[in-house]
Design brief:
about 400 residues, alpha/beta, 7-stranded mixed sheet, 4-stranded antiparallel sheet, binds S-adenosylmethionine
Length: about 400
Amino acid sequence: MASARRSALAATRAPLMREWIYSMLYDPVDGYFSKHKAPVAPMTSPTPFPSLETRHDYLAYVAAQYATLETKWLTPSEIFSPYLGRAIANHIASLGVTRVVEIGSGTGTLARDIVDSLKAREYADRKFEFVSIEISKSLSERQAARMEGAGHADVYRSRHADALLESTWRQFADEQPTLIVGLEVLDNLPHDKVQVVDGVWHQTRVQVQQREAFGETLREALEPVTDDGPILRALDAYERVKSAPAQRTTRDAMFKWLLDATETPDPVWLPTGAEQLVRAVASTVPNHELLLGDFDFLPGVAIAGEFAPIVSSTVDGKARDRGELLSAPRGSVDIFFPTDFRLLAAMYEQVGVGGAGEIFKAHEFLGMVACDDVLTACTLADGSIPLLDDFANTSFARLSSTLHV
Ligand SMILES: C[S@@+](CC[C@H](N)C(=O)[O-])C[C@H]1O[C@@H](n2cnc3c(N)ncnc32)[C@H](O)[C@@H]1O
């Protein structure tokens, strides 16, 4: 019996890096986002921008919120609530869509702010719906409760589902014009780690090196790329974006890209989760705009490689960035990546639905969609506007099939 179990174990392939990251973040039992005490928190009242004198005062205010709320992350949706939601509601109204789907609604703050704002204008007379697609059961329940508490149960549905799966999007496979929005979701999507070895792209699996009484020691194992889905497609897009001098001899030798190994010595953290997301949406929802906002750059990353993540664990209540990934304790580690928006757009366009991607720095996009009263409410006493000035390392992508309303 024991030996049968052992051979069953041996027959199970070690997970690809993206599968391992996925389980670290989203395992229903001990994943980082599944824990009962979620790492994101809502603010109890809006940031009083006009009564804060300078940027220094504003930063001190935000730092005090972190301490008071004992939260790990305050995202722009929280810090700029309800104004960011109002700005996005302007965008929704200008598109004229009647269905909004938010991926990864976190605490539900942006959803509430958007629906508040839509109901306060002519959308109150129109039939519209707002749906959250959320992978964490505890956050999904929290979002539903929050929206019900805000009086929005009439237009709101919460779906506990994985946005990377096509099956999740089939319920929207009609012609209804749909805005799909996701803020700070891309950074938490799984990535694969690939590397050129002797001129051939290799993928990474996470293997158990040693089992011990109190845990396992893990190691990375490289092997030539065999994944014929997300890794291959994301590599295709990566290669196009980088204009790498790749040459393929035959279809059979497609992985033997004759890159000079010395030109690509570093691993690449390939956004295969994002590839799955844009493919699932683009190929399933015919009449959409996909609006994604996230970090385009992360400072001070200690892990090696292009698009490498920050791995932040909380030990004894203190956040600590780790220099390596595999020994991170399960459930207490956040893993988040920068997004290369050109690569994101290339992956979307390669799905071939005829849609294109437009990329904006956050201040450009928000400057376009925020109206004067939003900007005024977010202006400090010294005249600076954190909604536009902050998050200089953030961009937005509008990925759209030819949306018709
Ligand atoms: C960093 S939080 C951002 C929350 C919120 N959008 C905000 O800006 O405050 C990432 C959110 O995305 C959710 N998420 C991550 N991967 C997902 C997936 N594959 N499908 C649906 N939700 C996902 C997480 O559970 C979490 O709610």
